[in-house]
Amino acid sequence: MLLVLCVDLDDDLGRKTGFTTPVIGREPVEEAAIAMATADPEDSDANVIFQGLHVYDEIDARDESVEVAVVTGNEEGEVSASREIGDEVDTVLASLSTGEDVTTVVVTDGAQDESVLPVIRARVPVDGVRRVVVRQAQNLESMYYTIKQVMADPETRGTILIPLGILLLIYPLALVGALLDFPGLVIGSVSTLLGVYLISSGLGLGASLGGVATSLRRSLYAGRMTIIAYLVAIALVALGGVSGFETIESLGSTQEAVGLPIGAAAFLHGAIQWFGAAALTTSLGQLTDAYIGERLEWRYLNAPFYVVAMTVVLYAVSGFFVDQIDVAALATALTGGTVLAILSTLTFAIVESRISRDGSPRTVNVGE
């Protein structure tokens, strides 16, 4: 007697249709196949069961003794699934009321299900294995619909088409660059653009940049002072960098060699007032937005004073190293910056402790 054994290693049949396995006999197996195809038409296990029925009908048409059954495993791992299938094969063999020797043909949909062949072979001789391959998955029609489905996803479409489009632009742009006598610039620019895009995609910067753009647009519509403050600060930082390098050049014109520590001090001495102005601008912009949004706390007002104090201290210290500030002026700057920061901290701490948001005085216990 030939047993046609349909194998479903991860029990898609049981999970998707509720059929209790093993399923034995042509009519129950046909019902299981229809239920499986109805529940999930794309699942290849439905094709396995129909293939098992097809083999059964071929053997039965030759008036040979044949039976068909479906055995399943589980999702708990290959070892547990193999044991489950072994138990179900034992159940199937015990249900066969025949005095003939039983052999089997195993029907699967791939190498993973075929990993249980040793378990089946230990219980019943295996005459052959039928692997089900859907023809449509091998032709151009399937490829067309797969590509169409991938391209319908905006994220996947951007990931594939944008780098491909940049690559295709390299050749025509290189021709244009050759006509204009700067091919290297064109190719380098396109390569840089592609590299930046791939790096940003790999690091997931697209969502972050989108969030920054959204925040910037909302800030413009809300009339926030921070945007203008940041733009002014960027310009001040750039001017500070130029001023710092000019200070290094002027120092180099008076000395034969400028070492790294002295050069750094010269750059800081020339740039720190610009950097301080940039920091002061951003802090004032943020304070303005906090006041408009009714989120201003008294301690926030320390920021401009801290910026001024740090700027004075760094200007004096860097100037001392490049012989622009004497010891007396350095001591005065250090003392003044420290006193300014302390007075600012104490003043706003006292004001915040005594005045509530609605302007009513707050009682302060000495013991607290």
Layout: helices, strands, pairs:
Layout: E1 2-8, H1 12-17, E2 23-24, H2 26-39, H3 44-61, E3 66-72, H4 78-95, E4 103-108, H5 117-121, E5 126-131, H6 140-151, H7 154-179, H8 183-203, H9 205-222, H10 225-254, H11 260-292, H12 302-321, H13 327-354
Parallel strand pairs: 1-3, 1-4, 4-5
Antiparallel strand pairs: 2-3
Helix pairs in contact: 2-3, 7-8, 10-11, 11-12, 12-13
Give a summary of the structure in a few sentences.
The chain has 368 residues and is α/β, with parallel strands linked by helices. Helices cover 68% and strands 8% of the residues.
Overview of this structure, please?
With 368 residues, the protein is of the alpha/beta class. The protein folds into three domains: 2-133, Rossmann fold; 147-203; 223-354, no CATH class. It is built from 13 helices and five strands. It has helices spanning 12-17, 26-39, 44-61, 78-95, 117-121, 140-151, 154-179, 183-203, 205-222, 225-254, 260-292, 302-321, 327-354; strands at 2-8, 23-24, 66-72, 103-108, 126-131. A five-stranded mixed β-sheet has the order 2-3-1-4-5, sandwiched between helices. Strand 4 (103-108), helix 5 (117-121) and strand 5 (126-131) form a beta-alpha-beta unit. Helix 11 (260-292) packs antiparallel against helix 12 (302-321). The longest helix is centred in the last third of the chain and has 33 residues, at 260-292. It is elongated and about 115 Å long. The chain starts with a strand and ends in a 14-residue tail after the last helix.
